[in-house]
Amino acid sequence: MTESSLINIAVTILFLPILGFIVTLLLGKKVKKIYYFENIILFFSLAGAGILAYTKLSLFHDTAITAEFTWINLGNTPLLGEIKINLGIMIDNIAALMILVVMLVSFLVHIFSIEYMRGDPRYNRYFAYLGLFTFSMAGIVLTHNILMMYMFWELVGVSSYLLIGFWFEKKSAADAGKKAFIVNRIGDVGMFIGILMLFTTYHTFTFDEIFAQISNGVLPFNSGFWMTVTGLLIFAGAIGKSAQFPLHVWLPDAMEGPTPVSALIHAATMVAAGVYLVIRVFGIMTSDALVVIATIGALSAFIPATIALTQNDIKKVLAYSTISQLGYMIMALGVGAFQFAFFHLITHAFFKAGLFLGSGSVITSMHHEQDIRQMGGLRKKMPITYYTMLIYSLAISGIPLTSGFLSKDGILAGSYAFGLLTGNSFFAIVGFFVALLTAFYMFRLMILTFHGEPRNKEKYEHAKESKLVMTLPLAVLAILSIFIWYTPNPFNPEQGWLLSKGINTHEQYIPDNTRFDFLTPAKEPVIQNEESASVMYSESYEEAIQESHIPTMLLSLLMAGLGILIAFVFYQWKKINVDKLVDRFNPLYKFSLNKWYFDELYDATAVKGTIGLSSFLGKFDSKIIDGIVNGVATFTRGFSSFIGKFDNIVIDGIVNFTAYLSGFIGLIFRRFQTGKVQTYLVFVLISVVILLFIFNSF
Amino acid sequence: MTTYDIIFYLFAAVTLLSAFFVVTNRNIVHSAFYLLFTFFGVAGIYVMLGADFVAIVQLIVYVGGILILLLFGVMLTNKITNIEIKTDSINALPASIVLGLFTGALGAAVLNTNWKVVESPAPEATTTALGNLLINEYALIFELLGIVLLIAMIGAASMARK
Amino acid sequence: MLHVGLTHFLVISIALFSLGLYAVVTRKNAVMVLMGIELILNSANINFIAFSKFGNFGLQGQLIALFVIVLAAAEAAVALAIVLNIYKTLANINVDEIDSLRD
Amino acid sequence: MHSVPYLSLITFLPILGMIIVLALPKTQGRAIKSLTLLITGIQVIIAIILLINYDYSLGGIFEQSSFQFVEKWRWIDIDGFSWLGKIKVDYFLGIDGISTPLLLLTAIVTFIATLSSWNINKSIKGYFALFLLLDTGMMGVFVALDFFLFYIFWELMLLPMYFLIGVWGGPRREYAAIKFFLYTLLGSVFILIVMIGLYFSTQETLADGTRVFTFNILAMMDTNNFTPNGILSPLNPNNLRFIAYIALFAGFAIKIPMFPFHTWLPDAHVEAPTPISVILAGVLLKMGTYGILRISYPVFPEITKQLIWYIALFGMINIIYGALCAMAQRDFKKMIAYSSVSHMGYVLLGMASMNTLGISGAVLQMFNHGTITAMLFLIVGVLYDRTHTRDMDAFGGIAVQMPVYTGVVTVAFFAAIGLPSLSGFISEAFVFLGAFAVDLIRVLTVISISGILLGAAYMLWALQRVYLGKLNEKWASLKDLTFREYAMFIPLALIIIFLGVYPSPMLDLMNSSVNSMVKFMADAQVIYSSFGGF
User: Fold this and answer.
1) Which of A671, A681, A689 best tests the C interface by mutation, with the highest count of C CBs <10 A?
2) pLDDT band at D89; cut points 50, 70, 90
3) ipTM value of the model?
4) Which chains touch C (3+ CB pairs under 8 A)?
């Protein structure tokens, strides 16, 4: 297995899904069973991704494999110098792991969808879109330059648009797709500006070349401030895609799409792309930028968690939970706990995808009922779904022996250590508090759905366990949510292969004075290409992490336990009357139930403002600008008619007088005007005779 | 008075008298018949002037063609059954006066002019000479006339057909 | 009376011309107008031939007269077609009543 | 080597077609249409032949030797009148990397427009005769290198356009046609004035050593050719070059159309029949920007340099203003028309950058916008043909009824939004990359980028209102695309996708010329500054 064959595999798994997309889309009408083609392709992609990840991590562990070709070559240009745009593939450990996760989840969702979507009139097209999405996502993961990433970034947005609005007959679905795309675009605009700044400064889009130049001290506009700005602009893309505060509003609406799509795109992969992006460009984030990122992450973790407490739609709860968990990851990046962010990305991908698929299973058996108040008692009817979902819920709450515990604990430890090192313990506090909220709302969801008495008897009677094609993916994901895949020690992930070998860090490339002290390694990095985990942190940070490990673990366990306990007290044992509590804190409840009024706020400001401005400008254009044009025309016409009148009255007056005179004379001669040719001829003759006599020469 | 003179006056009288009747007769069919005599008279005058071929052509074309055409015109534009084919005249008085003056003026001009007359003996037969002229010096005009005739024929036919 | 010469022919020509003109000017019927025109053409022809004989121009005058005859034929045909057309359109060939030109 | 006068052929072939069309009897509608299709098809073939024989290394722009397929001979040559001086006008055609893409575009768009004209039923003969005349005018503008000739072609396309809108248009066609005509005529007057001014300021040296005034555009770029006292000569300290530049720019700006001269466009588009809208947006708008690149820029490099901030400003206004106005429209076609205003703003912005990226982006955007907007107007046309309304709120759920058509629509709309992998993205990205690199207009560029957000907003909104949602029962019997409509859409869609995935062929085509132009503009600053005054 050589590097070039790895590249070949990567290219193959990148382009297989687009082949699936094209074939399935074009033949979808004609061949009923064409969706098998897409599924088979996905299977091969998954196999390729498995081989790729395994080979990369075992054989080429320390090298990043890249391959590129020149896409656009403008040659040596007069003012800008050499301009060449290369596209290419980079496979480092992170990309290899990520592609595996993407393909795995994608494959499972494909399988799940075969049953879930059965009977849909656009069945084949659904799979085609999934293919398009998988292709775009693979592109994001495998690229070695930011332009290509942006391109696939947008393509992911489109496939998300198409899939959210898949049932476009429903207005809410079409609206949600549009909202998702546009809100994402807001972030993308920022990202695009960031890309412009990078390109203008470095004349390349390739990550490695940019990093190399930054290491040499070349900064945008030669200032650390602009480096921060550039980093944050790029991060704006992540805000949009990962549905971070303040652009998180699209994700809950995106739940209008089919549930497997929510699992794939809006839980596991696409929304994680933002995190992936920040990981990719982590090397250019200055300390200021990181603080902003961490703050955004913390807010995004906190706000949706509070909203999730009161939501009644099973998918909405999960959507807000997703935002919250993504906020965790972003916050982890901000506080420098880079590898835990990625770790959490992977574990979250599995258990959140599982949660969504599980909810999908519930929703199908309940005949498309999504309101948890109508459920209850489903545990007996759907045991497999129940137990798998229980595992996911434990994982997301951070209970030991699950994967979620490992990664979440790492993030909390990171923020704790950050607090220790910088004295800023805000992120740690938020982190722990959100852990409590997470445990609470997840178990609220579980209890309301599966425990207790069925609240809607009729639907309950018809509910039954889903078929094997649907439960199998659930089982696979549940198994993947167990700690054992990541580390042998369920309490210390650092010993696992994933963190010790799998996830390597880039170094930070920005000048020392713009980074956090703890991100400055004590010793010089050894060799450029050699990636090893210890490169980026200072020794003090290592110590702080060690120090915070035990307290974090205990505290987070406490929080999770507390959250679960409260949930049981409220909903299972009903020791406290929830309704009374709601009445008591009605404003707060309303605030949370209405999602902090973000939609209303944006509607009232940005949307109304833009539409107002546009309709104003539309009127302005047709009334004022066009009015001026028409006014000029009218004026010209008026002026010309005035001139015409002047002409008529004064100038023409003179003429008319002459005319009148001649008319008077004409009056006399009018009699001659008979219209009879012969009479004219007589006049001619008369004239000839007269002339003859006048000029007579005889 | 030679015989030539007598014959001349005869023809002149025929021509002018019949022309007068053409002009003054109120019955249009009669006018047409008088016109026949006028043409004969003119043809005679042509012979007097030594233009025998033109005289023949005059007879053939005018008498045989144009007059028939005119008669057809008369008959097609008036209902045959109702032979109220008399036509009035207008402007008779002023026209007479003016034309009188006009004729007087012309006549005065002709009579008062001292014409330089170079009598050329008329050739015995003009046909050959005219033919030569037509296909040599005047070939183009000859051709053009043919075209004009063709066009006139087509035009007349198409106009009358509508 | 003198020996018949150029002047005689010219006088006849003038007389014919005047009579033709009179017809053209005074007669109402369009066919009559055409007849007048024929008279005028004939008078012109007499002139041509007379000058041809007395002016020593050879046969050219006669030739022109021939041309005139040809053109007269063409003219008669076209004019009659027009008259017929007018008659069809207006049911009238009285020239004095056809005065649409006036308006 | 190129003994075949391809450029004359491609330019005057439609005239030949027009004569044949005029000779054909009125009743032969099919024959007339087929003939026009044949003629435009041959034009596409000629354009491809040109492309195959094109030498990518030659720059063009300012020297005749690096133009290709040049045809030059004396056309008007008057020396007889002493009071008039000598008037010599060349028949001078040639193409370089800036005009070739547009020539190709014109050929393609005209061909597609012919297909789309198939259901014209009102006096077919007149329509296609005018259509072909218009074709000649458009081709001529892109190949002419003599200002006089350029102007003739420029005017030549005005008249057919007037009639095509005024006779075959919608209910308010007379108003729209007059507005279009007067507006463009106003622009033409500006151009004419400047043309005459330049003529009397430029002298070309003939082979026998005498110097004569010239309309040769390339000669106008060479500072050696300026007369000392010419009114537009930089050698004249009291020259009026600044005013002339503004006038010329305004003349071209009307055609683009640049804010605030854009109001003829929505009216003309709304009233024009579909194929004419396609040509209007696909080709005619490009003439404005092409004129600026071909004439304003290299003839007045020093003033261009002074004014780039304003050009960029107007570009920005066009982008944002056009987008916001588009958002406010209910009329589908009007919305697309305003989107054209917005998209042409990118061209202006790219040109203002005066570097390779920006100008390449601008030229590419001209081409891409030509294809994309052609597709958009065809899309409206398809819907209008079937429903006879363009009110977006009257539709809804068309996607259910016409899935293939909606697929096409999605491709076109996303191309207009600037989705990567479709051609619109590349040109917009290049424009922004180029403009961002210039310090002076960076802020404007950043503001302009919000245009891609607004673009997405109005396009998706329209997509939703017309195609998504519940099917309006009124349209439950609509038929999906016909074979002819496939033939219109598929080539355009393929071009859009191909250039989105692999834009290099087009960029390579223009690269030498763009570089040569950038270099010329940069070098000219030095030369012109030596004249003083600036």
Assistant:
1) A681
2) confident
3) 0.67
4) A, B
The pLDDT tens digits for A675-690 are 677 777 777 888 888 8
DSSP structural state of residue B58: I
Q: Minimal CA–CA distance to A293: which of A324, A345, A237, A335?
A: A335
**pLDDT above 70 for D363:** yes
Taking each continuous run of H as one helix and of E as one strand, the counts in chain B are 7, 0
CB contact under 8 A, C7 and B129: no
Buried b or exposed e, range D355-377, using 16+ CB within 10 angstroms = bbbbbbbbbbbbbbbbbbbbbbb
pLDDT band, residue A511 (cuts 50/70/90): confident
Q: CATH no. for residue B72?
A: 1.20.120.1200
User: Are residues B32 and B82 located together in one domain of the fold?
Assistant: yes
D chain contacts of residue A72, beta-carbon cutoff 8 Å:
503-504, 507
Across the interface, of A80, A174, A182, the residue whose CB is closest to D456 is A182
C3 interface with A at CB cutoff 8 Å: no
For chain C, domain boundaries: 6-90
Tokens (6 digits) for A122: 């656009």
B101: closest chain C residue by CA: C18
No. of H helices and E strands in chain D? 22, 4
Query: Would residue A382 be called left, alpha or beta, if left means φ above 0 and alpha means ψ between -120 and 50 degrees?
Result: beta
The reply to whether residue C102 touches residue A685, judged by beta carbons under 8 angstroms, is no
Q: Are residues B80 and B159 in the same domain?
A: no
Query: A355-369, A394-408, A484-498, D157-171: which has the minimum mean pLDDT?
Result: A484-498
CB-based contact C18 B149, cutoff 8 Å: no
Q: Is the pLDDT of residue C79 over 90?
A: no
Query: Chain A: which residues have CB within 8 Å of chain C?
Result: 673-678, 681-682, 685
Does the pLDDT at position A528 exceed 50? Answer: no
Options 3.30.1780.10, 3.40.190.170, 2.60.120.330, 1.10.287.3510; which CATH number does C6-90 get? 1.10.287.3510
Please give the model's pTM, rounded to 2 decimal places. 0.77
Cβ-defined contact of D515 to A75 (cutoff 8 Å):
yes
Is the CA virtual torsion A12, A13, A17, A20 positive or negative? positive
Q: Are A418 and A428 in contact (CB under 8 A)?
A: yes
Check whether residue B132 and residue B76 sit in a common domain.
no
Q: Is the pLDDT of residue D401 over 90?
A: no
Residue position matching structure tokens 């299972």? A572
What pLDDT is recorded for position A80? 83
Kindly state whether C60 is in contact with chain B, defined as any CB-CB distance less than 8 angstroms. yes
Residue B160 lies in a domain: yes
- Please state which of the ranges A151-160, A502-511, D83-92 shows the lowest mean pLDDT: A502-511
Q: What is the pLDDT of residue D44?
A: 93
CB within 8 Å: C103 and A681: no
Residue in chain B lying closest to A682 (CA): B95
Domain of B62, in residue numbers: 1-87
- The pLDDT assigned to A121 comes to 83
Using the predicted structure, report yes or no on whether residue A363 has a pLDDT greater than 50: yes
| Secondary structure of D142-176 as H, E, C letters | HHECEHHHHHHHHHHCHHHHHHHHHHHCCCCHHHH
Whether residue B109 lies inside any domain: the answer is no
- Please give the tally of structural domains in chain B: 2
Cβ–Cβ below 8 Å for B95 and A682: yes
- Domain-located, residue B9: yes
Is D in contact with A (3 or more beta carbon pairs below 8 Å)? Answer: yes
Q: Where are the domains of chain D?
A: 307-501
Let me know if residue B77 belongs to a domain: yes
- A vs D: CB pairs below 8 A: 151
Q: Please give the pLDDT value at position A531.
A: 42
State the Cα–Cα distance between residues D155 and D135, nearest whole angstrom: 12
Residue A684 in contact with partner chain B when CB distance is under 8 A: no
Write out chain A residues lying below 8 Å of B109, CB-based: 698
8 Å CB contact of A79 and D470: no
Contacts of A154 in chain D (CB under 8 A): 419-420, 425
Q: Can you read off the two tokens belonging to residue D296?
A: 């304003």
